[in-house]
Amino acid sequence: MNKTVSKVYICADHRGVGLKLYLIEMLAAAGYNVVNLGVDDPNTSVDYPDVAKTLADAMANDEKSRGIIICGTGAGVLIASNRYRHIRASRCSRLEQARDDRFHDDINVLALASDDIDIEVAFMCVQTFLESPFDAVERRIRRIDKIS
């Protein structure tokens, strides 16, 4: 477990509820401090921009936190999340993506597509995202500063 991650905020729209609840259970069992930001009912329709705002607001004053955001395709929550200056989100479906996106771009939010990913692969991507370091060399920091 990455001790530098203070909290793992997790939220989903109605299409991502099942995957979100599975990930909460697995992360809690692995010892992470998981904060469920909703939605918990797949029959309660919610717009993905609202889900992204909830996550961005929760992470606004917690630089050591990470976020996981889920919708059916992963694209909607990815686009909406990246509208916030302090969020660097990437949609990942492979472990290598999660590792490389942390290493190169210091992503702090992982977007997942509940319709397109096996739940066990999703959990492995989440673990990789949470455990992978950022390569804080000057050129990477400079690039991130330009988008922040």
Low-confidence regions: none
Lateral arrangement of strands in the main beta sheet:
2-1-3-5-4
The mean pLDDT is: 95
Ends distance: 28 Å
> What is the total tally of β strands?
5
Beta-strand portion reads 5-15%
Q: Shape, please?
A: globular
Domain count, please report it.
1
Largest sheet: 5 strands, parallel
CATH architecture: 3-Layer(aba) Sandwich
Number of H/I helices: 6
What percent of the residues sit in helical stretches (DSSP H or I)? 40-55%
CATH superfamily: Sugar-phosphate isomerase, RpiB/LacA/LacB
| Sheet/helix structural class | alpha/beta
CATH class: Alpha Beta
- Over the alpha carbons, how many angstroms does the gyration radius reach? 14 Å
Q: For this entry, what is the oligomeric state of its chains?
A: single chain
**CATH overall fold name:** Ribose 5-phosphate Isomerase B, Chain: A
- N-to-C series of helices and strands: EHEHEHEHEHH
Topology of this protein?
Layout: E1 8-12, H1 17-29, E2 34-36, H2 48-59, E3 66-71, H3 75-81, E4 89-91, H4 95-105, E5 109-113, H5 119-131, H6 138-147
Give a short synopsis of this structure:
The protein is of the alpha/beta class.
Describe the fold and architecture.
A five-stranded parallel sheet has the order 2-1-3-5-4, with helices on both faces. The mean pLDDT is 95. α1 packs across α5 (119-131), α2 (48-59) packs across α3 (75-81) and α4 runs parallel beside α5. The chain contains six helices and five strands. The protein has a single domain, classed as Ribose 5-phosphate Isomerase B, Chain: A. It has 148 residues and is an alpha/beta fold. It is globular, with a radius of gyration of 14 Å. The protein has helices at residues 17-29, 48-59, 75-81, 95-105, 119-131, 138-147, and strands at residues 8-12, 34-36, 66-71, 89-91, 109-113. 45% of the residues lie in helices and 15% in strands.
